[in-house]
Amino acid sequence: MARVPFIAGNWKLNKAPSEAAALAKALKHKLADRGDVTVAVFPTALSIQATLQSIAGSGVGVGIQDISVSPRGAYTGTNSGVMARALGCTYVLVGHSERRLYYGEDEAKVSARIRAGLDAGLLPIVCVGETLAQRRAGQADAVVHDQLAGALVGLNHDEVVKLTLAYEPVWAIGTGETATPAQAQAVHASIRSWLTNAYPAYIPNQMRIQYGGSVKPSNAAELLACPDIDGALVGGASLNAEDFAAIVAAAIA
Ligand code: PEP
Q1: Is 188 a catalytic site residue?
Q2: Which of 45, 69, 106, 161 is the most exposed place for a label (fewest CB within 10 A)?
Q3: Whole-structure pTM over 0.70, yes or no?
Q4: In the chain, what are the domains?
Q5: Does the beta carbon of 212 lie inside 6 Å of ligand 1?
Q6: Model confidence over 5-38: pLDDT tens digits?
Q7: 19 is known as an active-site residue
Q8: What integer pLDDT is reported at residue 153 of this predicted model?
Q9: How far apart are alpha carbons 93 and 126 in whole angstroms?
Q10: Ligand 1 close to Cβ of residue 174 (< 6 A)
């Protein structure tokens, strides 16, 4: 079954509100003819409102890069999924390798954030991926399967099918190193077969698995041509409207 491609831009801790508004405005213009490709951007929380205002009417979704596991309360310095949804966010990123590395997000925390996101009415993009040492030790598939098992525990089928997965080999994020299409396709196929073993067939057929790790206009087409790669999670190249639009263009059938 053909899946509609999904291209997401993770702006990380970049783009102050005025810059985010300018980038969103440029994207609105450049992404006007994108067929049925799903597109979303993830500004830093302080720039979400400016992005939403500039991108309104384009059909491009906006997401938040992380949420607290609690919708409200005494949790200084965090952001609420319920409030993000009220503001106009559609998506939440969960389990990004930078969150795992710098903020100690283990499987339990990832799973709790997926729960909080779904409860808030947000659609999570759940990131998984191995380190270079794990790949060299031949553990890429096992690591990703363990991350999936830990992240998806306790979700019912209706909830699992709402998720998007992102395979992001840690060694390829922000490094300029990209997994070859064959390397990426192999792990995507192994994720899909893990899903096939765990869930009824409609779930692996419908769920989109994005590839992330130094995706750019020059490599997007060959990655997106792989049968189990259903889109991309783009960091650095999503900060430039022209580059991001070129990646979206590569996803148009
Ligand atoms: C990311 O932030 O998820 C990412 C893949 O970054 P980059 O494209 O810069 O490697």
Answers
A1: no
A2: 106
A3: yes
A4: 6-251 (3.20.20.70)
A5: yes
A6: 999 999 999 999 999 999 999 999 999 999 999 9
A7: no
A8: 96
A9: 6
A10: yes
